[in-house]
Amino acid sequence: xxxxxxxxxxxxxxxxxxxxxxxxxxxxxxxxxxxxxxxxxxxxxxxxxxxxxxxxxxxxxxxxxxxxxxxxxxxxxxxxxxxxxxxxxxxxxxxxxxxxxxxxxxxxxxxxx
Amino acid sequence: xxxxxxxxxxxxxxxxxxxxxxxxxxxxxxxxxxxxxxxxxxxxxxxxxxxxxxxxxxxxxxxxxxxxxxxxxxxxxxxxxxxxxxxxxxxxxxxxxxxxxxxxxxxxxxxxxxx
Lengths: 113, 115
Known about the structure:
The complex is a heterodimer.
Chain A lengths: L3 E4 L2 E5 L4 E7 L4 E9 L6 E7 L4 E4 L2 E6 L4 E6 L8 E9 L7 E2 L3 E6 L1
Parallel strand pairs in A: 2-11
Antiparallel strand pairs in A: 1-3, 3-8, 4-5, 4-9, 6-7, 7-8, 9-10, 9-11
Chain B lengths: L4 E3 L2 E4 L5 E6 L6 E8 L3 E9 L2 E5 L6 E5 L5 E5 L8 E8 L10 E2 L3 E5 L1
Parallel strand pairs in B: 2-11
Antiparallel strand pairs in B: 1-3, 3-8, 4-5, 4-9, 5-6, 7-8, 9-10, 9-11
């Protein structure tokens, strides 16, 4: 089955800096790659996603890039703010069931004021 | 607020017992997914229902079962509970099992503690 590896496990940045989280996946059949943000005591919240026919997608301070050949994708957060502090998960899925996800292990992002 | 409602928020029960977790999907969503989140295993897919029918199973134990009712709400039944079943259980819903905007939205979860 699919395996998703996520790095780093923890990331500490100063407010205003950029943060990058990287994931690799194993199954070339995967075609949908969402990123979720999870705050303490809450469920994962979808923040951005990308499909395999697209190389890059941006939404304000957040961007995701996908390299299908290398089977890796990354989350970029620019101009980080303290409220960006949370656990971030990458995930991958195949076919058309976008909710049947294989998640990475998560990255704890801390943004220091 | 994702629009997905899970009850109860917290549940404490003893080993050997049986519990039922409930999920109400977003209005109009036909797909419901169940996930387990634990410190050692991370977020793990358990099972997917679409419009009342089981569509996919993940690493779901035989002691666990789920169903989706005609009104589209879903229940996850956990029986013969063990200490290791203590975890957060999330439900997610998405509009369709087909192609298109099928992004999954998660509820706030049920924290299960088995003592």
